[in-house]
Each structure stands twice: as structure tokens, then as C-alpha cells.
Amino acid sequence: MAERLIVVGGDAAGMAAASQARRRRNRDDLSIVAFERGHFTSYSACGIPYWISGVVPDRDQLIARDPVTFRESFDIDIRLRHEVTAIDLERREVIARDLAGGGEVREGFDTLMYAAGAVPVKPAWARTDAAGVFGVQTLDDGAALLDWLEREPRPRRAVVIGGGYIGVEMAEALIQRGLTVDLVEQADQPMSTVDGDMAELVADAMRGIGIHIRTGLTVTGLEERDGRITAVVTAEGPMPADVVVLGLGVRPNTALAESAGLPVGPTGGIRTDRRMRVPGVPGVWAAGDCVETLHRVSGMPVHIALGTHANKQGRVAGINIGGGYATFPGVIGTAVTKVCDLEVGRTGLRERDAETAGFEFVSVVAESTNRAGYYPGARKMAVKLIAERPSGRLLGAQIVGWSEAAKRIDTLAVALWNGMTVDAMTALDLGYAPPYAPVWDPVLIAARKAVDALAGAER
Amino acid sequence: MAERLIVVGGDAAGMAAASQARRRRNRDDLSIVAFERGHFTSYSACGIPYWISGVVPDRDQLIARDPVTFRESFDIDIRLRHEVTAIDLERREVIARDLAGGGEVREGFDTLMYAAGAVPVKPAWARTDAAGVFGVQTLDDGAALLDWLEREPRPRRAVVIGGGYIGVEMAEALIQRGLTVDLVEQADQPMSTVDGDMAELVADAMRGIGIHIRTGLTVTGLEERDGRITAVVTAEGPMPADVVVLGLGVRPNTALAESAGLPVGPTGGIRTDRRMRVPGVPGVWAAGDCVETLHRVSGMPVHIALGTHANKQGRVAGINIGGGYATFPGVIGTAVTKVCDLEVGRTGLRERDAETAGFEFVSVVAESTNRAGYYPGARKMAVKLIAERPSGRLLGAQIVGWSEAAKRIDTLAVALWNGMTVDAMTALDLGYAPPYAPVWDPVLIAARKAVDALAGAER
User: Fold this and answer.
1) What is the CATH number of the domain that holds A9?
2) Do B410 and A430 touch (CB under 8 A)?
3) Does the N terminus or the C terminus of chain B have fewer Cβ atoms within 10 A?
């Protein structure tokens, strides 16, 4: 009889694992059942802000692979609208509730892939039945928000709570739809994924498109009338709102895993080894937004919910479940986004992370351009480097620029990944042609400036 | 008395060296005299095609730093229109001819920086006094060509000889100016800096904008009438031409150096050590388009004339002359260009280079997109990887894509620089957001495909 793999969660990590396992083992060797509580498999949650803004017109464009593909091409028994409610490690079975048809199913497993994803952070004050309050984690969230935005009376005043990637992207999307937008952030800057000096460049761009930024402001409640949201209550008084978007981030979805006894680390994510096995629990694997992972620079566990990690981790788990060998070596915190035409990239540690991790360091910001200064379309770009002293090892990098900027963070990410020093980086052979870079690439200019700063710091 | 540094050649390498030396040593310690036979210092030869096309309207935009800056800010005695005609290592002096004023000057030196650049390859048949034949190496070349293009009777039929970067860029520039353009290439493909499969994508784009490509065709002469060029003679007959652009590449300008006894390597470039010293010749340094350098992947010397290398090498020499310590660790052959909107990047070895160097390898081409497939503006991108077998070490990479493609070669260049295997590359933490990449970045997709090819090759 075939071995049975059960996958809890049918999004990026779970389906990547299932597909990779299937590539290596056929149905006679491994049967695969995947439970997904939502309506969809493998969709791009990162694309939701662009769907809301109208840049991406159709929801289905966000769906990478539909269940039919998984069933027919991969021979995976994918069961949508089924929520796994219990995992019994002793009896090697899961219990799932059929959210559509009602009733429960029990399925035995030999191998379990836990990929339940993340759940939005939702403080007590945000728990309301009032209409007009939305998360933006799932396609269903997005559909509900779009419906609200298009229904009469049309909302005109939006408040976005939280100034991280999703908050900033949603604020831009709502501006593009013609709403007035306040963005409320508890910290002293939005986009706190980069340091304050770089975040200020982003905040300027946000203000430039009409987003009202309210930093250092704590939300304490929501006001409603006749079942509709009317205002966000803050320490400085109420802010009127016809629609409220919660962008407070996510946390690992581990309730079920913890009940079953799977180990959870200091970040709240499930612990795994390098092969994505759950340590001490034979035959159980975990991957994606529900796990914590190693930050390769700080050496500490982190929880970063991002599709690209989920896909990689799922692939690694699937290769291993399939009888192959693969490891996931951790992350370095690379991320990119944009606010209108302003592009933002980051990798590694911010200054505060470097301090927390105990590093001594210098940091520099080098101003340059994306193209040769004389080439049409040359726009400003700021590259920040954080380098350990006295070693000169790169610890982190940030880029903010107006065009062709964000993905240059990859160059720095690969340098960081390989433990390069800023001194060694000054010699890197990067592509040069006037439409693409000054003769000293912005990355090299920043590396040179960091070398000078290190020399100065040692004097 | 101050030590005397003489710089032969006042472009990128020479002036980078002079500036860096000056940063570390003041005029009382080091006097600096730089001889430049042309009219300009530190200009962007790479920008000439964009000046010819009109994209960059003004010649002076291509001049990075003028002589006044070097004299006043750096205290460098820069002498334009002075051609060094002899170097006497015994007597430690150079002789320079004043091309403008006439006469000769002799200057003694303690330290010599040889940075005489490159000279265009010009076969015997190309030596003509006929008007209408142009190189495009110097600003003077560019000015002469522009003058010819704008003078009556206006040229309408251009033939560009040579299908490398400069030939392809000049062909595009001339199309943009409204000329008909034939591009003649002796090899079986233009843009032979990438492999044939990738070059074919470039050739398609060139044909798409109306460039007539003639490959496998040898030029044997030029025809003229009344002192004007009328045709290019080839093995297949004459090709009518009102203007001929020679894009046959350059070779190191070493005549003077060789007369003085400086050692020249197998590529024809001057040999240097890692600090840019000329070995066996105390007090003499060399950098830029006149030297050969180490290719870090093949381990063999190469001659690559490119402003970015010249600047880096000059900087290294100048730091060392200034009493500091720096090394130039070699190159990996990274280059980028574009043909209209098609972007081309390359790094490391092509297939033929890998064969020449004796490597066994697999190569793969992965098709992907620059953005998430659903994000507006997503365009096709092909990433080629060449990986050693069985080790999996990356040996080379090429990218051809329609938008936001070329500079992604830097990601691969840094991976190659650090000796990464394609297997390790599949785990790289690269920036992901829908406007910038699919959830599997094109670089990662290619790495995965290379891993599969390696596994297949070992079966």
C-alpha cells in the first residue's frame, strides 16, 4: 500500500512540498491529500494591493495554480474548504471539518506536512462586526474590500492602520482609487523595515502622492454607527473613516500545531531543522509562514512571512519527503517594494538589528544615480551599507531610488550571503553601460564610502 | 624635493591613479604631471553611441572631469595635446611632443603610471584617406562622424563593420538618425560576447528595428570616388555606403611601452601584478585598457577594454603609489548593453570559453518574466547558466530580456565571483514583490533548471 502524505494548508509551502514529493514518487508509492480551508490554492497574497488598486484587473490572475492542475497533473487529492481541526500524532491521523458541506473527515497519515501559514495580527480593539473593516491577507479579504469600495454609498475616507509593506502598498492602492487616505503607524516612521534615514525618503514619496502619515500614534478603538465603521479612535482623538484596512502584520498560525505538541520557537513560529523536519517529531515536516527560520547574519531565529521563502522551504521539504536531499539554509531578510515610482530594497540587518545582535558597525549612505548622469532618465538613488567593524563584513544594505533601483538589492544580498567585506566588494565586476549605471556603480560607490568610514572609525 | 609621478595617458585609469595618489600625498611630497595626447580628460567613450544617436545631446555631458578640476582641485599638472613619444627607464625620463604648440618636452620621473589606453583594430584595407570612414573611440572621432552625418549631401546608407558592443550600439544609433544600416560581421552571429542561442535573440531585435545583419561575411576593402567613400567591398560583392563605421574592437596601446622594455603578455596587454605594478620594472605601474588582467574563472589573462575596469585598476595603482595598500583581483567579464528595448547582460565564461579553458559543463536557458506574470509590464526574460559538472560551480551566465533585465546579471556576477554552485544559488534570498519578480525569481528558476540538468548529466 502507498504511503500517505497529508498536507495541512494548500498554499505556497504546502503545494510546493506536495508537487516536489510527487515529482520523485508516483501514486503507487505515495498518496497525497491536501486540506485547504480557503477557496483557493497557491495564490499571490502579495498581489492583493495591486488588485485592489486596479493595476491587476482580475482576481484570477493572482492564482498561480488551480486545484484542477494539482489534481490532474500532480495527482494530489486537494480538498478545498476543509479546515484541519486536530492532529493526532499518536494515531497518525488528522480530523478536518468540511466548511462547505458540513461534517468531519478523518484521514490517517504516515507523513505530515504542516503548512498552515500565518494569521493577521488583530488586537482586541479591532474585533468588531461593523462593516467596513478589512484585512488583506486572503483573496476573500480582497474581494470583500473591493465589494465595499464599489458599493453605495461609496467610501471616501480610508484609514490604513500599520505602516509596513502591506500598509504602505494598501495606502497607495486606495489613493489610486481616489480615496483620501490616512496611514497610522505606532512607531515614529512608516516602512520601519528600513532605517529612519531611508524611511524618511519613503515617507516623503508617500506624502507626495497625498497619503497623510500619522506616526507615533496608537489606535485604541473603532467607532461605528448602524453597523458601519465611522472612525478610528486614537490617543489624539477620532479619525473619520468609511473604510479601515488593517495592515498590522501576521503571526505564525500554530494553534493547531501547538495542540498537537509541535515545538514552537521564540518567534512564535514552528521550529524545524535544515531539511524542514520538525525536530523530535518523526515524519512531520513544516514550511512557510508558520515556521521560524535562521537569519544568517544575526544567527538568530526570525519569522518572515513571504511567498518566496514559503516556496523555497516547501520545495526543500518536498524533495526530502520524496527521498531526495535538500536543505534550507536560512534567510537574510531581503525585501523589495515600491511607493508609486519610488523603489525600496533592503537586505540583512538594519542598524537597530545590528545593535540587538551585538555588532559594532559603521553605516554610510551614498547618493548616486541609476544610469550614467548624462544618460536620459538618470534618477537619484541612495544606497546604505552597514558594515561590521573592524572586519568590514557587510551586515546589511538598503536602497531607495526613483527608477531601476529596488532589484539592485539582489547584488548586495548575494554579497551579504557570501560574507563579503565592503573592501572586497569595491572590486566586484558589475555590469557597466551608460543606460544602466555610472562608470562607478552605485553599489561600488557605497562600498568605497564604507571602506573610508571603516578607516576613519579605526583612526 | 618632492617625488615626481608622471602619468602617460589622461583618461580613466591615469586620472583615477593620479587622484588617488594625490588624496594620500600632498604636493610637497609628490608632484604629478599627466600627459594626454587628446583634447580631453576622463570622458565616457561608452557614451559615444548615445551622443551620435542624439539620446545624449551634448558632447560635454560625456566629460566626467575637466582638466581645470584636476589642476585646481587635485593639483595635477595635466598637459593636453601632449603625446609621450619615448620612455627612458635608465634616465628616468619621458619625452613628450606638444601636438598643438610643437616642440618637445622632457620630464624626469621617480614613478611612472602607464595608462595609454587602447587603439582601434584597423586592418590594412581600412587605411584610407577617403572621407566618410570613422572609428568611434574618442570624442574627436564622434565629433567627426557627427559632422559628416549633418553635412550635405547627407549620408543615407551606413555600413557598420563589426558586430560587438560598439558595432551594435552604433548600428542602433544610426537607425535612430534615420539612415539605412547594414551591419557586417565576420563571425556567424553579431553580439558574439554571448552564446549563439542568446545572440539570436539579440539579432532578432536588431532586425526588428530595421538593421540588416550580414554575418559570416568578410570585408576586403573600401571603395571611394572623388575622395568620398562609396562602398564596402566584401567576399559577396560591394555594399553601397555613404558612411562607414569601424567597430572592430581595440587592442592595447603598448608600442611605447614595448620600446621601453615593459613586459607584454599573451593577450598583447602589459603585464602587471595584483597591485598594478609592472613586474621587474621598479617604480613603474600600469592600468586600464593597455593592460591584461586575470580572468578569475578561467584563470587565464584577458584583455577587456572597459571604463569600469580602468577606473578600478587606476584607483588601485593610485592607492599604492600614495603609500596605501590595494589589489585588483581580476575580472569575470561582466558586461551589459541594449538594443532598443532589448537588454543584454553577460558574466563569466561563454560555452566556447568554458571549452577552451577545459571545463566540463552543462548549460541551461530558463524562460521567465521580469515581474510577476500578472503584473502589468511583465516581459519575457531568458537566463542562461553554464555550470561545471559535476561540481555545479557556476562558470558563466547570460541574460536577454525586454525590460529590467540587464542589470540582473550583477546578481549572477556576485554569485560567480564568490564561486557559488547552482545548487547553493537555489536558496539565495532575492527580493520578491510582484512589480519586480515572479515568486521564483528568474535567477532562481535558472539555478533550479541547472541543478536538474546536472542531475540528468550524472545519470
Assistant:
1) 3.50.50.60
2) yes
3) C
Give chain B positions within 8 Å (CB) of A55.
375-376
A73 and A14 part of one domain: yes
Catalytic-residue membership of A46: yes
Specify whether B240 is located in the same domain as B261.
no
Q: For residues B55 and A234, give the distance between their C-alpha atoms in angstroms, rounded to a whole number.
A: 53
Q: Do A374 and B62 touch (CB under 8 A)?
A: yes
> Which residues in chain B are contacts of A194 at CB distance < 8 A?
none
Residue A232 lies in a domain: yes
Looking at the structure, tell me whether residues B229 and B144 fall in a common domain: yes
Is B430 close to A334, i.e. CB distance below 8 A?
yes
Pair (A98, A128) in one structural domain: no
**How close does chain A come to B259, measured CA to CA in Å?**
31
Nearest-neighbour CA in chain A from B90: distance (Å): 34
Closest by CA position to A194, among listed A60, A89, A351? A351
Q: What is the CA radius of gyration of chain A?
A: 24
What residues of chain A lie within 8 A of the CB of B334, using their CB?
429-432
Do A439 and A340 share a domain, yes or no?
yes
Say if the Cβ atoms of B47 and A427 lie within 8 Å: no
How many separate domains does chain A show?
Answer: 3
Answer whether A20's CB lies under 8 Å from B426's CB. Answer: no
Q: Which domain holds residue B274?
A: 3-43+62-119+251-321
Q: Are residues A197 and A86 in the same domain?
A: no
Among B50, B410, B428, beta carbon nearest to A375:
B50
Q: Tell me, yes or no, whether A23 and A90 share the same domain.
A: yes
Which grid cell is A124? 482586541
- Search chain B and give the residue with CA nearest A48: B434
Contact A320, A287 (CB under 8 A): no
